[in-house]
Specification:
By secondary structure, the protein is α/β, with parallel strands linked by helices. 37% of the residues lie in helices and 21% in strands. The chain is built from seven helices and seven strands; from the N terminus they run E-H-E-H-H-H-E-H-E-E-E-H-E-H. It is globular, with a radius of gyration of 17 Å. The two termini are 21 Å apart.
Length: 200
């Protein structure tokens, strides 16, 4: 664990406050991991809103940090805060329900805010290199009818790739698969959670 890793970060992305499978499973996992590591839990709830990348954001991001105007620094302040949460985390738990075969828009917006060249990854002569190394990642997924990991499910594989791109390669997946077709899906996900992160 890095000396800078001081928290467990939980990123919630379900639009639902009540009845969300990913919210409940991810919160259980996050509390167990925080207790096991003796670290505080930080929750980033994307359902409360996350900024979208726009032209002003892009211009600010691609301006050297020491050359940014005050307005550009302000424009990147939200992104900087999200990146700081990631840098501080020993473990990152991302709740990722499958919406229309992919990730929720809020989760895509969060990724756009934290996947920043020269900040969380860099380009080298041998290709891109993630800068957020030494962290463990978790993806908690759920789907109504789409097979998690199947050929038309584009949320969890994409998220695993993006986490690896910024340096988080040790990633576990816990998924409640096709819950509208499989009555045992949630119980199976809970059993997998218990196996990977048993209660104290």
């Amino acid at each position: 664990m890095s000396d800078a890793a001081r928290t467990v970060l939980l990123v919630q992305s379900s639009a639902r406050r009540e009845g969300s499978i990913t919210r409940r499973l991810a919160e259980t996992l996050a509390r167990r991991r925080a207790a096991a590591l003796g670290l505080p839990l930080v929750v980033r709830d994307l359902g409360e809103g996350v900024e979208l990348v726009d032209e002003a954001w892009v211009e600010a991001n691609f301006t050297d940090a020491d050359a940014r105007s005050e307005a550009q620094r302000v424009r990147l302040a939200g992104s900087d805060a999200l990146v700081a949460e990631l840098k501080d985390a020993a473990e990152v738990i991302v709740a990722a329900p499958v919406y229309n075969f992919g990730a929720p828009a809020s989760l895509k917006a969060w990724i756009d805010q934290v996947a920043r060249a020269r900040v969380t990854f860099r380009y080298t002569e041998t290709g891109p290199e993630g800068l957020l190394t030494g962290k463990r990642g978790w993806i908690v997924g759920a789907s109504g009818g789409t097979e998690i990991g199947g050929p038309i499910e584009f949320a969890t594989g994409w998220l695993r790739h993006v986490l690896g791109f910024i340096g988080i390669h040790d990633v576990e997946l816990i998924a409640a698969d096709r819950v509208m077709m499989n009555d045992a899906a949630v119980a199976e996900a809970e059993a997998e959670l218990d196996r990977l992160a048993p209660a104290a």
